[in-house]
Amino acid sequence: MSNRVDLVVPVKVLLRAKSRLLGAADGGAGDRTAHERLALALVTDTMTAARAARGVRRLLAITSDPHVAEVLTGLGVETVPDVAGGLNAALAYGAELLRQDHPDCRIGALQADLPALRPEELDAALAAAPERAFCPDRQGTGTTLLLAGHGPLDPRFGPGSATAHAASGATELLGPWPSLRCDVDTAEDLLAAATIGLGEHTARLLTPAA
């Protein structure tokens, strides 16, 4: 596929990740080890799907968690520590690294909590995207994918990021890609992702609890 994209993916330290999902992996018990396994499974399934997308040329994960870095390296994903601090700063830093290696590359940012992601749906969104675009989450307020094309990434993630990215000149991507819009922050989100079909790692982890 021509005009493939390089994506930077931010991944939190597992100890601080997905606090609203605490208990989802163990029937409400709230065991931290089980919770961190779930957080890692979400990331693993997201990265596995993104690597399988034909429109993705390169994935770069920004994470300061050594265990996450080890697992992602095993998947063939490049990782670098987060030295910037803060989500948008980390994304801007990752985009700068991608551009240093390939100044003419098409770049974007992908969230790491898309456990139902389908490679073909990510490909469809990438193919439909103009130079600068974003995919909103299923609620329509957040952002799961930001594409900067060959311009600055200018990430504006956080509360109301869909509105912020639209204000930055990004075109909203709405199409037949529900798995790309289903990020997971809460138990309700996890149920929605399960309806679409969870990736292997998340599904395997949640089967005993189910």
From TrEMBL:
EC number(s) recorded for this UniProt protein: 2.7.7.105
Classification via Pfam families: CofC
Q: Name one GO molecular function term.
A: phospholactate guanylyltransferase activity
Protein name stated in the entry? Phosphoenolpyruvate guanylyltransferase
Describe the family membership recorded for this protein in Swiss-Prot or TrEMBL.
Answer: Belongs to the CofC family.
Residues holding phosphoenolpyruvate: 143, 158, 161
Give the highest taxon in the source lineage.
Bacteria
Q: What does this protein do?
A: Guanylyltransferase that catalyzes the activation of phosphoenolpyruvate (PEP) as enolpyruvoyl-2-diphospho-5'-guanosine, via the condensation of PEP with GTP. It is involved in the biosynthesis of coenzyme F420, a hydride carrier cofactor.
Catalytic reactions of this protein: phosphoenolpyruvate + GTP + H(+) = enolpyruvoyl-2-diphospho-5'-guanosine + diphosphate
The biological pathway it contributes to is:
Cofactor biosynthesis; coenzyme F420 biosynthesis
Name a single GO biological process: F420-0 metabolic process
Which keywords, in A-to-Z order, does the entry hold? Answer: GTP-binding, Nucleotide-binding, Nucleotidyltransferase, Transferase
Q: Which InterPro entries match?
A: CofC, Nucleotide-diphossugar_trans
